[in-house]
Amino acid sequence: MKHVTGLFSKGTGEQKGFRAQYAVFWIFLRDEKDLQNDVLINHELIHHEQTKELTPFLFFPLYLGNYLVNLFRFKFDTNMAYKNIVFEKEAYLYEEDLNYRTHRKRYAWIKL
To answer: Which pairs with CB-CB distance under 8 Å and at least 24 residues apart come from 18-27?
Structure first.
């Protein structure tokens, strides 16, 4: 699969942290089985589309800035702050639509 590479942790017990992480044109996955998870991969590829629009130099500061604003907005509830990042809202909303990226409008995250 293009743009996908595995980063596999061998932790025991409850897995904490991310299942997948998009980082400048690579997707890092915790478990090898997630290579077959089309919804998870699609979510991360939506972030790839967002990054292509903005370049990494704008995407990552805007992502982090939106998260920090949300921390104050949601009284330091980290889960709510994360879920309400405009880039995450688009990715979660359309992650199950595996054709979304083919008909996605540029800067779609602005309207969310």
So the answer is: 20/44, 22/47, 22/48, 22/51, 24/51, 24/56, 25/51, 27/3
pLDDT tens digits, 11-38: 444 445 567 877 777 888 878 888 899 9
Structure tokens at 35: 């290579």
Q: 28 and 16 in contact (C-beta within 8 Å)?
A: no
Place of tokens 């994360």: 82
Distance CA 69, CA 63 (A): 10
Give the start-to-end residue ranges of the domains of the chain: 5-111
